Amino acid sequence: MNNEIEQELNAIISSIKEWLQAVSGNILAIDAIANISAETPVSGLDLILDPLEWEDLDPTPAPRLPSSQQNQELDSLDPSGSTMVYKSNWGEIPTVQKRFQSILKQRIQTEMDDDRLPLFPWETSISDYELEEPAPLFSQALNFSALQQWMPQLNTLSVRQQLPESVLAQILRGCFAVIATPRKLGGQIVKAVGELFPEEGQALNDVAGLVLAGGFPGRGSGVTAAPEIIDYAAATPDQQMALSLMAAKQIIDNLTLFVSTHHPQLRRQWQTIYGNVDLQLSYHPGQDVSKRGANPSLRLQVWLPKGGRMTIDNSHGSVVTERAYPGYVSAELFDLQPSQLYPLEIRLLEGEQTPLSFAISILN
Fold first, then answer.
1. pLDDT of 249-287, one tens digit each?
2. Which regions of the chain does DSSP assign to beta strands (E)?
3. pTM for this structure?
4. Which domains does the chain have, with CATH numbers?
5. CA 143/CA 221 separation, integer angstroms
């Protein structure tokens, strides 16, 4: 009888070791118990493990059992009243005794109290992991601080009072993203506010056509010639779209710099929290831009209210000029092509920021 019990306990211990090793790769909680089977007598009901308690320690996953063993049952007490018989995948054997359970729990608790917690397979020692706090949803959608230095210019918008600052910041970011794309104005403003109205592409296009024609959606199905003084939160969805599209149109108008043979000079300012960025463009078409051998050029001079960098792109690459303190930076482009956009970015010497983005357009 004792030999059968010893074999059974050894089989159970081996299975528990395999299970713990698969979970954490650490079997310290079992090592000291491996030899108790030969030293522990088994007899009497006082040492019997309740079958319901054993279910929590069962090391054999149910799905791996053969179908013939899926429905295990507990036999009743034998006539002597001394042993409970349990049917398992090892056959009919006496159930695990309570002492085994108590020693197992005691050893695991000792390991935990000594800070010797089970390790993951890739760990060699206990380590404290730094908690990574999730970023607020607002900062995931929009990094407001990266745009804040460019926001003062938006106070000049005709719809400034109707739009919350967070909405304006998202529109500004959208305008920076589309300003140098070869889209018509209507497509640019729809794209710029698209994140505010996801899955509303057709409605945005309809309202954009109305805004570009000088209209504004009224209450119900009506149309007004000018926007009502309304609160953005209380406006209808069409009115919110119209207010956002109007803001995007005015921003893109400020960010697009047109020069031509008839209008070769242009000056534009953009207000920042440090002062104005002042841009001066001077276009020289050469002899005749339509003739071969002409060499049209563009000179750009920009005043920076603090140290920063200016980058302008053309078909041959990028021209970068910078300074460490307030003052002018300048650049000159040659071999310009009419009807082509030339992206211009301005960054100030600050932390993380979205660049102030313009588009220079050479008109025929």
1. 999 999 999 999 899 999 999 999 999 999 999 998 876
2. 85-88, 91-94, 216-217, 223-224, 256-259, 265-272, 275-284, 297-304, 308-314, 317-323, 327-334, 341-348, 356-362
3. 0.59
4. 2-113 (no CATH), 148-255 (no CATH), 260-362 (2.60.40)
5. 36
